[in-house]
Amino acid sequence: MYKIALNFEDGVTRFVQTLSGETVADAAYRSGLNIPMDCRDGACGTCKCKSESGQFEMEGYIEDALSDEEVEAGMVLTCCMRLETDCAISVPASSEVCVRSAQEDITGTIFDIKRLSDSTLSFSIAGDQVQSMNFLPGQYVNVHVPETDQKRAYSFSSLVQKENDAASFLIRMVPNGLMSTFMAETAKIGDSLTLSGPFGSFYLRDIKRPVLMLAGGTGLAPFLAMLESIKATGTNHPIHLIYGVTHDADLVEMEKLEALTSTMEQVTFSACVASEESNWPLKGYVTQHISPSHLNDGDLDIYLCGPPPMVEAVSQFMNEKDITPVNFYYEKFAASSH
Q1: pTM listed for this prediction
Q2: Is 57 helix (H, G, I), strand (E, B) or coil?
């Protein structure tokens, strides 16, 4: 039995004692602390924390969840971390979130379905349980695919709307994908869906300095929810979103972005398209449109949501520029192949 200190980002420390062979995540959960997690078997990377001291073993995870570079930097997956001495880790979430973040199943009904492009679809889920769901802008849920034992993870692309108790999501349309096929061919307004969550430590923190938001593809979703939250509360710090896609047709929710940012003097956005055949004014990758003014000599917080190659490219870009942001929050995702 070993003791672990969980140091949360709001300055609170909680001490948990592990049982023999127990993972840190399970020990925390047994003690009433929900370290952000999803899969529990080293596949998703949601429970990623930073080791501060102590010895441990960590086996059974995949590189998509935790890369060799992250291991060298002291990152750990608490769902695979078993202590060999007393330890301390930094948890990239507030203590309040980890205490209150009940991960449970709720039921809602499909309120709206929209085909935004050949590659992207949006849907909304409404209901009393959705209205009372306690999530932070940026977090995600697992949506159960009807008549299967499968589920798919989607970030909220909106807050719960007061007029209809509905929250929205974006889906990348995957050929023959279970959820893609269901939404495109079978789903009807009023159909029931089951959600599990909320999950994730990728959520909007208090804005204390300039913010740079970087979105790739349907990684735009959490930023739409964040911008709704910022619009409601206001900000005195500059915020810039760069939204990157592969093809012109992949650009979605541009009108919503315009509406969200047009009334906020401090908030701006730009969009770029990687394809050389694009007719969009800004071409190339997100990193090609990050200016020195956006980086503010490192005095900024960066939020990044996109596929793994994008996360790696941004990290490399920051290293090449010798910029270390005050905070770098990221969530990488890959669309299911089925």
Answers
A1: 0.84
A2: strand
